[in-house]
Amino acid sequence: MPPERIGSIRRETKESQVTVEVNLDGAGRSDIATSIGMLDHLLEQIPRHGLFDITIKASGDIERDPHHLIEDIGICLGRALSEALGERRGIVRMGHAIVPLDEALALVAVDLGGRGYAAVDMAFTGDRIGQLPTEMIGHLLAAFAIEGRFNLHVRVPAGTNDHHKAEAAFKAVARALGDAVRLDPRIPGEIPSTKDVL
User: Fold this and answer.
1) Dist. CA 17–CA 137, nearest whole Å
2) Distance from CA of residue 77 to its chain's centroid?
3) What is the residue-averaged pLDDT of the chain?
4) Is residue 196 part of a domain?
5) Cα–Cα 20 to 30 A to 33, which of 9, 130, 161, 190?
6) Domain total for the chain?
7) Could you report the per-residue pLDDT of 20-66, keeping only the tens digit for each?
8) Is pLDDT above 80 for 2?
9) If you ran DSSP here, which 8-state letter would residue 4 be given?
10) Is residue 132 included in any domain, yes or no?
11) Is residue 47 in a domain?
């Protein structure tokens, strides 16, 4: 049996307190509480559609501005993912997904090759979805990718409803990551790179 692929991160600052646990070989279970309902809803898409188990407990100075809390959640989620991946031996490494939600369409590609980078192209009509500032959605995904040491491309070329666009994007991120983290039985224990390191 391969070792458990679990990452656990705790981050405490003057602005936020965040704990995240990720089990890459889970069953899609989540326990997420950030005090921002729409953010919880979007984050719950990752375990459900990527088939990870994820726990996120987060609180912070959202009465001032939710920016700090949301950014720190992205940082911790990325670090927990990277810790769970370890040396990334035997993984498929790359994944992609095209996900519709009514009129919205999201396209996502990921590469878990160790290079943190995000290119997010999503335009929103409003400033907020519930209590979640729409400008922070791309920022969260960028922090997730950079700290998770993976390449992330997100495009939402169609959609008129901001909720639909954001949710389609997170579902697509989940599906792409779910494919990329899978263990490939053809390369057990091997680093999926010509450099032999990720």
Assistant:
1) 19
2) 7
3) 96
4) no
5) 161
6) 1
7) 999 999 999 999 999 999 999 999 999 999 999 999 999 998 888 89
8) no
9) P
10) yes
11) yes
